[in-house]
Design a protein that fits this description.
The structure is a single chain. This protein is an alpha+beta fold. The protein has a single domain, classed as Gcn5-related N-acetyltransferase (GNAT) (Aminopeptidase). Helix content is 24%, strand content 36%. It is built from two helices and three strands, in the order H-E-H-E-E. Strands 1-3-2 form a three-stranded antiparallel beta sheet. A hairpin with a 5-residue loop joins strand 2 and strand 3. The protein is elongated. It holds the Pfam family Acetyltransf_1. GO terms for molecular function: acyltransferase activity, transferring groups other than amino-acyl groups. This is N-acetyltransferase domain-containing protein.
């Protein structure tokens, strides 16, 4: 997961989205450990169009590192 996240950040992705089965609590906890948060859900449909459950939509927003600039000026 760390490798995938770093590759996407190198590609300048501002956010990463994924879907996880709503009942898969272990996977949700796994993704949460990497900074993903739930932002919604959608119906999961198979090829026939039949709804078989719901997916949780999760997002991880890119963390911006702030660079501190030295304010020591010579007067």
């Amino acid at each position: 997961m760390e490798h995938a996240i770093s590759r996407l950040e190198l590609a300048d992705a501002k956010a990463i989205y994924l879907d996880v089965w709503e009942d898969n609590l272990a996977a949700q906890r796994f993704y949460a450990r990497f900074g993903f948060s739930p932002i919604g859900k959608r119906e999961f449909r198979v090829a026939s169009g039949k709804v078989t459950g719901s997916d949780l939509i999760m997002r991880r927003v890119r963390r911006v590192r702030k660079l501190l600039r030295s304010t020591n000026a010579v007067s």
